[in-house]
Amino acid sequence: MTISGNGYLKKMRGVTSTPPRVSLSEIVWSWMGAFLGISAVAYLNYVILDGSDMNLMLGSFGASAVLVYGAIKSPLAQPRNLIGGHVFSGFIGVASYKLFHPCMWMAAAIAVATALALMHITKTLHPPGGATALIAVIGGEKVHNLGFLYPIMPAGLGAIIMLVVALLVNNIPKTRKYPEFWI
């Protein structure tokens, strides 16, 4: 089998054009949701949990904010996917670290690939979940010390906080409705 312009590379041309721009109102509501969602998680992390060994902030929540406040109709942004994607991926990440931490590159690869497979199987595909799994492996001592608490807090609790904000903010304007589905 050869890679030629007639087959394999031809598939990479794309078949559609870019989607149209969203309205200014959509941009404002997306911004408002992301600001309030990340603010809520960050406030709890930096004001209430400061000084404790608990951490509520995950880098993957930034990507979740883009989905649940900016792409609210996407199947990847729905509550089932937001919560399930972070929680399942968190468990996979912790298990991968515990089993394979002597070989970190292997633990990282297994965590992300297995989290992806599990999200497909459970119909909870949420791309930031891959980052949640990876953080469980490459995170520092504070993350590793959480062990199997990590999928519950920060992953699950942070996702629930962002979901509550998404339910409130995304349903204020008449032009937005969230969620598209729950289960």
Tell me what the structure shows:
With 183 residues, the chain is mostly helical. The chain has one domain (24-169). It is 61% helix and 0% strand. The chain is built from seven helices and no strands. Helix 3 runs antiparallel to helix 4. It is globular, with a radius of gyration of 18 Å. The protein starts with 23 loop residues before the first helix and ends in a 14-residue tail after the last helix. The relative contact order is 0.17.
- Name the average pLDDT: 94
Distance from N terminus to C terminus (CA atoms, Å) equals 43 Å
The number of helices is 7
- Major beta-sheet overview: none
Strand content: under 5%
Radius of gyration: 18 Å
Task: Summarize this structure as a short list of keywords or feature phrases.
mainly alpha; globular; 183 residues; 61% helix
Provide a short characterization of the protein structure.
The chain has about 180 residues and is mainly alpha-helical. Helix content is about 60%, strand content about 0%. Helix 1 packs antiparallel against helix 2 (about 60-70) and helix 2 (about 60-70) packs antiparallel against helix 5.
